[in-house]
Amino acid sequence: MKQAAVKFTNYKSSLGFWIYLMTDCLIFASLFATYIVLLPGTAGGPGPKDIFQMPLVLTETLILLTSSFTVGLAMIALSKKNIKQAIWWLAATYILGVAFLTIELFEFGVLVSEGHSWQASAFLSAFFVLVGTHGLHILIGLIWLLVMVIVLLRRGLNSKSSRQLGLFAMYWHFLDLVWIFIFTIVYLMGVAS
Amino acid sequence: MSLKKYIIGFLASIALTLLAYNLVAGEIANGLTLLLLIGGLALAQMVIQLVYFLHLPDEMKPRYKLLSFGFMVVILLIVVVGTLWIMHHLNYNMMEMSPSEKDHYMSSQKDKGF
Amino acid sequence: MKGWGIDMWGRLSLEALPHDIVTIGGVVGGGLAVLAGVAALTYFKKWGWLWREWITSLDHKKIGIMYMIVAVVMLLRGFADTLMLRAQQAVFGAGDGGPISADLFQQVFSAHGTIMIFFVAMGILFGALNLIVPLQIGARDVAFPLLNSISFWLFVAGMMLMNLSLAIGEFSTAGWLAYPPLSGLEYSPGTGVDYWLWSIQIAGIGSLLSGINFLVTIFTMRRKGMTLMKMPIFTWSVVGSMALVLWAFPILTATLAMLTLDRTIGTNFFTSDLGGNPMMYVNLIWAWGHPEVYILVLPAFGVFSEIVPVFSRKKLFGYKSMVMALMAITVLSFTVWLHHFFTMGAGANVNAFFGIMTMIIGIPTGVKVFNWIFTMYKGKVSFTSPMIWFMGFVVTFTLGGLTGVLLSVPGIDFQMHNSLFLVAHFHNMIIGGVVFGLFAGITYWWPKFTGFYLHEKLGKIAALCWIVGFLVAFVPIYILGLMGAARRLDSYDPSLGWQGLFVVAAVGVLIIGLGVVVQVAQVAYSIWKRKELRAPHDAWGGRTLEWYAHTPVPEYNFAVLDTVKSRDEFWQMKQENRFRSKSTLLPIELPKNTSAGFLIGMTAGLIGFAVIWHIWWLVVIGVIAVVGLVIWANLREETEFELSVGEILRHEKSMKRAGL
Predict the structure, then answer these.
(1) CB of C277 less than 8 A from some CB of A
(2) What is the pLDDT of residues C520-541, one digit of tens each?
(3) B40 by DSSP, 3-state: which?
(4) Chain A: residue nearest B13 by CA?
(5) Considering A188, C2, C519, C656, which has the largest number of Cβ atoms within 10 A of its Cβ?
């Protein structure tokens, strides 16, 4: 009886969280639409071709992609009840996530120091807020991941922590999915001729 | 949930990412063709990750996740495409432009095939 | 005021307290009401009870009642705004003067719209959903009880910021949607627009979370045997409404965030220079705004789909077409939003497309109206007060819909946009549709949760006052609009000869006001005479499962959950005398109380307040606190308690003995 109840709770949570992710898609959609509309609004300042450092962008893209892979490996380890291995893969995910965020903050920092901040033009506002919102989601994910690892270490794996980690994995995969579109629409299409 | 699935998904995603990057970096195509190509690659990678990382097709019936995803895509397209269509027309009609700016705008739109 | 180099109070100062007599009056009045409440709670030593039974409760029924109470209180404030607006135009409209300055007038109509849409309509809506949906599908609670509590307290936080703007600072003067550049930093540098932004942003997140909650509840927690096509139509209307909440509200969240960023960190989304595009705000806000009105009206339609069959003693005509109409309206409502800004200049092609889509969306609604009428045909109709609300709805909503089709023609809209004709049209839809529907629903479901009926005669009088008052108030507004009167003005040139019509409109509002007074009297009187007005658990000869539950509804809703066999399951059970339960009685798990929802909501409100007044250190603390609270809420062990079979049996027996 308890088994069925746990399965049901897991499904409810999974569906509910998925629906939340669908709403998050629409937040990003609004930000993407705004970005595209405000692309020409450079106010005499730099446009995409002038400011994007593509090799760096490719690096952070591959880093995030790898972290999406490692979180999947963590889930496989969990399904085999191998907590130790799961924690190693989660730690890897964390480190890759921090690396991604560091590169992004570096990119932002360079722009701001050159005077190309979000205050300088509509294009830059849209860029910083679209990419920054994704970065904020990553930051929240990292805090969540940290908490989950601590819970795993202290309370071990039970139905609740297992369920919550499943939700985290979904969240992290979703963030990589959104990044595909940022990579393509903001960066690739930005520098393409 | 198998290791094989994640590996396939990971390698495919890397391939698609590098392909898109090189299309742009190597200036292999340009203009509308390029946009369509890398857009297509992005969509392909999205599908790969939905299948191999997010296990969307593995959901049991009734497929509520698929339903809500589908609905989301429809609404997203309506809102984004609708917005771009509307704003394009609004900008053209309403933004203050000098005659030479208007000429420039019109010929640039013409180049895009409008 | 500075301390350690940081600004302690941001831009908050004694200047923020109200200066004019009207606002001071409002603050004093509101303050006295709050003080009276506090005094009563203290005198009757009910603080503990309030905390245990209500504030920390995760019971969907209690949360539903709290939503209703907050919404009704805000209705009184929103209606006070109405009285001020009408009075100003009727008495002083022909020139300058009066106790309400031009600036205050702008704040009053902005507050009026914001309160009515976000706090009254959405509040009553979520109250009704919370009370009814789990019962109608035969479930014990919503899918995520803690999230439900968080949603409610976020709603309250938004409400509190809304009311605080009266006492500390000012409110927005930019209308209920705050278009830039007027709402941007350059033209509205004060705190008004910031209050507006944060109160609806916070409440909006509550709505989004409720959308997730109710959709998952309906998808996964229906009693066994209740397929989607056996659900009551009210529940179907909630599916449509929640789908709209989920896919439209994020647009609002993003747009409000961008305006907030423009006003706080200097971005240029909607500024008139540096590449910003204010038209983009209008586009995005209406991409949300149009679905929003369908979010409000679909459940009102659902209410009528419950009421008409019960009071015609006949099953609903055309169940399948009702479902299809609801789903069609849901999708179509995302395809019409440009009709709110035909005049912004998108051109003929774009205008034509959206004009045609707007005409099309009237069709499924027409299908529904016909189905309700066909339900009544050859039924045994009893004209109880819910049916009076329904008749009022059919007449007024249909008329309002016709004016909508008029407005959907871009060429006509060019004349009517932002005139009083438009104002009459949307009040027609919202009052005739949403308000009448929600009042009908409150009257209909009241006996379920209280155990007594609302006094019928007073209810009929109230309904008639609202219907007549509405027509007397708004037909002149339609006429004024046709004659060219613009909206949102506090005075009009007397030589136009329009004053007479404004006076008539004011009389209409007073008649509505009489209706409100009668409603308050009805509630008070019914509570006083509740023994005479006792209602059984099946108060009206209902058809759906909520009427099967005891009155008052036990915490666990239903002791056993038998398999559902048909549509209008309760009606069928009565026909077939199918009351001996075949299921075994099992222990029931229920969520424990928790303060998490309350604390998260209040902290969110605090963050909003701190950002509005630029008290940055408080923002940082607030954000850390909210993150900590969310982590704590999710890591709690022991979140449920169990009701043993013995306890359930005892409760059921005592209800049966009381004949409930």
Answers:
(1) yes
(2) 999 999 999 999 999 998 999 9
(3) helix
(4) A65
(5) A188
